[in-house]
Specification:
The chain has about 525 residues and is α/β, with parallel strands linked by helices. About 30% of the residues lie in helices and about 15% in strands. It contains 15 helices and 17 strands. Helix 2 runs parallel beside helix 3 and helix 9 crosses helix 10.
């Protein structure tokens, strides 16, 4: 993902495996199978049964977990936009370590908050001393912007105001600007700290000269105060005779509300709710997840980290049951947004026939959420909606390259070298489809996996037009000069063909180079 999605992800949410003494399996050598990794790390017995390998008695209890997390966070930072944020749920076991490595990766100054999420609403009386009712949500920005004046600028969106918040605003003096609320006219600085804010102001109805307390001076300088008077923003009480004024803060000016660092279960959901939510979608497999996260929790993060009605990208590389996709799809449905998600999940075995791996459950949950919303839309009035929401998604499996590469470690003896040469001539792996090759080339060319691809027929051959014709990919095994000319007439920015398609015809390849150059296409590659 590093080439195609570098600096393009607006928000990342991860719920990494909690270090509870159970095994967490995330192989870093992706050229090997998961089973191979389990075997050489001693995580399966002779019969192939998996078992835990990280007991608290192990001196590397924490370091194993940190070694698993650090490189993933490092790569994740590269994928974030400059205005991007990452949310990470974690418990007491590793919150300290996660904060340390995250501060090293993202910078301590980019820590936005350590949020306390109330995940349970009832105590567990079977615990020895404390019943844990909370987890943490660490929030980091990639870059925390600073204004020219040195003030920290906001990265997150404000939350919507509630009716209870708006009830505090009224309009007792019938101001044409609408409802307002009196605000403190002083600040928490002393006269010694801010001598320019310690001065007398005139009470207009009594004529009295009023000084603030020396321990709490005015919030506004003289010139600013005079402007407040002209703007009728200074309030001296209902009878106009208060000794300390208030500042009129209008409802139309306050906008949203800054998020707090305590998230209660009745606002963002709890673990019991998330289990019921998953069971409603997966009555046959809900028991596979002990601690799924509620969609309301992820939606809370989305409301802060992603602009409404945007096409921002949200990434979750510990996808689990697919809660992130569920939350994004529902948010798009509620707000007419076009936010996109990328989920990454290892095919960890479940020992089930219906869902052999965790990744199978991830995919099926997304399908069921989409079907549920599509079913709800059936029979509804259109009400002027021109474009129906696109709830489709694509699934890709990580595999070795479709192209065999030259092995520099091959033995220097005739037979081995001859075999290597044969592989290099016929370098496309067996049983690889045109789509397999197409999407590998997209990624290697720096295009996201959701880039529009149109299949076209030119000169009787199939050509793939990528991103509205910016890139043309031809995977035909028999190229012709007519096809080359037809592609050149489309004037794409780049052209990619299979080297095999020229069948060793150097003259045809030379003609292709000159034809594309004549049409201003300087980026022509063969693979």
């Amino acid at each position: 993902m590093q080439k195609s999605y570098l600096g393009k992800v607006k928000m990342i949410y991860i719920d990494p495996p909690y270090n509870t003494g159970n095994d967490f399996i995330y192989p870093d050598n992706f050229s090997e199978s998961l089973q191979t990794y389990l075997e050489y790390t001693g995580q399966v017995d002779e019969a192939g049964t998996k078992f835990g390998t990280n007991p608290e008695s192990d001196g590397r209890f924490h370091s194993k977990w940190i070694n698993m997390m650090y490189p993933r966070l490092y790569l994740a930072r590269n994928l974030l936009r400059d205005d991007g944020v990452i949310f990470m749920t974690i418990d007491d076991h590793e919150v300290d370590n996660l904060r340390k490595i995250s501060s090293e990766v993202f910078g301590e100054e980019n820590l936005l908050a350590s949020v306390c999420w109330q995940k349970k609403y009832a105590p567990a009386n079977d615990k020895a001393d404390f019943s844990t009712s909370h987890d943490y949500v660490l929030v980091y920005a990639k870059v925390r912007p600073i204004s020219k004046e040195g003030r920290v600028q906001s990265v997150l969106s404000k939350e919507e105001r509630t009716e209870d918040m708006d009830r505090a605003y009224a309009n007792p003096d019938n101001d044409s600007r609408g409802s307002w609320k009196p605000g403190d006219y002083t600040c928490n600085k002393s006269a010694e700290e801010r001598p320019n804010l310690y001065y007398a102001i005139t009470q207009p109805n009594t004529g009295e000269e009023i000084f603030p307390k020396k321990t709490r001076v005015w919030a506004y300088g003289k010139e600013y105060h005079e402007q407040n008077v002209k703007d009728h923003r200074v309030w001296w009480g209902q009878d106009g005779k208060n000794r300390v004024p208030s500042y009129k803060r209008f409802l139309t000016e306050v906008g949203g509300v800054v998020a707090q660092t305590v998230w209660l279960w009745d606002e963002v959901g709890h673990t019991d709710e998330s289990k019921k939510e998953l069971k409603s979608l997966f009555p046959e497999a809900a028991e596979l997840f002990d601690t799924p996260k509620p969609t309301k929790l992820i939606q809370k993060m989305l409301s802060l980290g992603v602009a409404p009605q945007s096409d921002d990208i949200v990434l979750d590389f510990f996808a689990g049951s697919g809660t992130t996709a569920h939350a994004v799809i529902e948010r798009n449905n509620d707000s007419s947004g076009h936010c996109r998600f990328i989920l990454v999940q290892l095919p960890e075995p479940t020992k089930r026939v219906d869902f052999p791996t965790i990744a199978d459950i991830t995919k099926e949950r997304v399908r069921r959420v989409i079907k549920k919303l599509n079913d709800e839309d059936t029979g509804k009035l259109n009400l002027g909606v021109v474009n129906k929401p696109d709830r489709g998604f694509r699934v890709f499996k990580l595999a070795e390259s479709n192209f065999t590469t030259w092995d520099a470690q091959v033995a220097h003896e005739p037979k081995a070298l001859q075999n290597q040469l044969d592989f290099h001539v016929d370098h496309i792996r067996d049983e690889r489809t045109a789509d397999d090759i197409l999407y590998e080339l997209l990624l290697k060319s720096g295009f996201p996996l959701a880039t529009p691809v149109e299949k076209q027929t030119l000169a009787g051959k199939t050509v793939h037009s990528v991103a509205g014709g910016a890139l043309m990919i031809c995977l035909e095994r028999e190229l012709t000069l007519e096809l080359i000319r037809a592609i050149a007439e489309r004037k794409p920015e780049r052209v990619v063909c299979l080297d095999e398609g020229f069948a060793g015809n150097d003259q045809l390849k030379a003609n292709a180079v000159q034809t594309f150059k004549t049409k201003g296409i300087v980026k022509f590659q063969t693979v």
